[in-house]
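New here. Invent one.

***
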Amino acid sequence: MEASPRFLCGGLQAFAVLQWVFSFLGLGSVCLVALLLALLSRAWILVVLYLLWLYGDRNTPRVGGRRSAWVRNWAIWRHFRDYFPISLVKTAELDPCRNYLFGFHPHGVLVVGAFGNFCTEATGFSRLFPGLRPHLLMLPCWFQIPIFRDYIMTSGLVSSDKASVSYLLSCSGGGQVAVLAVGGPLEALEAKPGALSLRIRNQKGFVKVALEHGAALVPVFSFGENELFRQLPNPPGSCVRRAQEALQSLLSVALPLFHGRLGLLMPFRSPIHTVVGAAIPVQRSPRPSRAQVDALHALYVERLTQLFEEHKERYGVPADRHLVLT
């Protein structure tokens, strides 16, 4: 009698994750096909009206998006959280009167922890950080897909181009949080179980924009992010890696060849603990020098490494394992 509710709960969790994976990998194509079919049907006038509206709305992903508290609080996200499970760990208070740039590490294959913690309320972001509104930055190309772009914006996703980040970090009154997966698409190619490699040595654009707007930097490390999928072997210099890097340069998105449970795209059940560090105060400098950028970048890397070292054993990383910064 007890197995039935447990089975139902597990089924809901699996469905929640499966629909999210589909949304991430396939919903955009479905939206395009649906729009084309509607255009060829008697509903074509509705499509034309939508496209006219879309033209006027084209800049919304660059000016804070169009988030929905209702969507962020959907019950399905709690099942999504419990599948892994995902937890959000607060280590310091953040002043809601300031704007912040969260650096999220590592990217992982599908940035699961970033979505679960910052695009939903399943882990209690608003409760832990009252007065702050998180916006997860996503490659601009995704916001070119009609209908799909409107759906993803409801969760707080916005374009990752500089104009979008600058808009958030320059908002008066504070309370805005731009969340950036610093390693970018290429770091996804290193997302393998046990991997602790971060692409950060030459990633300094986020530091520069923080200086330009005086936004505090906050390092975030998501333990377990790299344990969710397995990838086809792609060591640097291999044919597979060269092809992936060439496609990334062409399409601006990484194409990791990965699989999950039972050889499918369902991620493995592995806990994700996303630890939010203390803020690094940043003095506004509209035109920061290279020395200023390098100094703040070095401080950020130091604080990120310290955050990892302080929490790694609690979340299953052996004491003799350390970050590899590339």
Summary: The first strand starts at residue 86 and ends at 90. The mean pLDDT is 94.
